[in-house]
Design goal:
Largest sheet: 9 strands, mixed
Helix content: 40-55%
Oligomer: single chain
Shape: elongated
Radius of gyration: 31 Å
Low-confidence stretches: none
Order of helices and strands: HHHEEHHEHEHEHEHEHHEHEHHEEH
Structural class: alpha/beta
Length: about 375
């Protein structure tokens, strides 16, 4: 079976919305002109180019395209006629989809040619406020800002930032993570003072997502272990997995005591969906995911969602556009409507030793020079 590959042309005069292919154009020209030389003139190509192209197509497709009779007009073979017919049929049938694809591509590339538009690539831990921000940014009147957000674990997001795969990384921690916590041990090797900057974004609530009415009466992780409730975890490398392990350590609960600790889902939304479907009794997640599916939510901890960037990109136009947008009254009001969310130092650059208190900076004492003897 022969496969079809699509490509497009980007130029000031790229032509109409049709998906173009040189073979149907050659066949059409030969059919209309009745000769290779006439087709070459109609297409503003050389005879040698048209003749060679048709021969190469015949070899690639395994069939004769042109009937080469001496002293007679060139004619399409049955195979050539069917190819031209198939292309016309496809173009006619797919014309609306082709036009829509053409329009979508032109809109996307219009951003690249608009000096007032910005594109910001972000890898981030799953967060509903970021989803809302992406939509808000595209609709805002403060300048076109397009957020290319790829949701991944917090650890992977910061690694992507350090490897140059994105401009911003979204991750979250409790309000005051202890210096000996798993949170500190996880993020300290990835974030360095002087190299990274932290931008404030949101405060949100994490807790237990359970069935409506909380039928098992779960109020803590100790209750989850005691009752043997079917639990769903988040994957290794996610901020919620780090948070859970810290909370278990604080509560003195072993991970093995949680039934289903080894089972995981990729997002808060997936956790909530599994609980709603009865596939699990409980999972860790954010309040907005539980409320969206009519589930009960048991708050356990308030945490802060941070946006990290390299110091070098802090004042780049795209980053500045985002920082300005985060501080607009419209966005602050919209975030406040999300269950379990509140704005937290939105768009402001934070001191790393305040946000991540395991970074303690001590000023070097100035040594006094020895007094010279007279």
């Amino acid at each position: 079976m022969h496969r079809v590959q699509l490509h497009y042309t980007l130029s000031r005069d790229a032509g109409n919305a049709l998906i173009r292919n040189p073979l149907p154009e050659l066949l059409q020209a030969v059919a209309e002109q009745g000769s290779i030389s006439g087709a070459a003139r109609a297409l503003d190509l050389s005879y040698r180019h048209v003749w060679g192209a048709l021969k190469r197509w015949e070899e690639q497709l395994g069939g004769e395209l042109i009937i080469w009779g001496k002293g007679q007009s060139a004619q399409l073979s049955e195979f050539g006629t069917k190819l031209l017919w198939a292309e016309r049929q496809a173009q006619a049938r797919l014309a609306p989809q082709i036009a829509a694809l053409h329009a979508d591509l032109e809109r996307a590339f219009a951003v690249a040619f608009d000096p007032n538009a910005h594109v910001l690539t972000m890898y981030a831990s799953h967060d509903d406020a970021l989803v809302a921000l992406r939509t808000h940014a595209a609709q805002a009147d403060v300048g076109a800002l397009h957020l290319d957000i790829r949701f991944t674990g917090s650890v992977d997001a910061i690694r992507a930032l350090n490897e140059g795969r994105c401009t911003l990384a979204g991750f979250h921690t409790v309000e005051h993570p202890a210096a000996d916590s798993l949170t500190a041990r996880t993020y300290k090797p990835l974030l360095q003072p002087g190299l990274h900057k932290i931008i404030g974004f949101a405060q949100r609530t994490q807790g237990l997502i359970v069935a409506p009415g909380n039928p098992l009466g779960l109020r803590s992780l100790a209750d989850v272990a005691r009752t043997g409730a079917r639990f769903l975890n988040r994957p290794l490398g996610t901020g919620t997995r780090v948070l859970l392990d810290d909370l278990l350590a604080q509560a003195g609960v072993e991970a093995q005591a949680i039934r289903g600790y080894a089972l995981n889902e990729p997002s808060h939304t997936a956790i909530a969906q599994a609980v709603a479907a009865g596939a699990a009794d409980v999972g860790m997640g954010i309040e907005v995911a539980a409320r969206a599916r009519g589930l009960y939510f048991v708050p356990l901890v308030h945490e802060r969602y941070h946006l990290a960037c390299l110091k070098a990109s802090l004042d780049q136009p795209a980053t500045l556009a985002l920082r300005n947008l985060l501080q607009t009254p419209e966005w602050l009001a919209q975030m406040a409507t999300l269950p379990g969310y509140s704005p937290w130092q939105c768009g402001e650059v934070q001191a790393m030793n305040t946000v991540l208190p395991w970074w303690q900076f001590t000023r070097k004492k100035r040594t006094s020079e020895p007094r010279k003897k007279p």
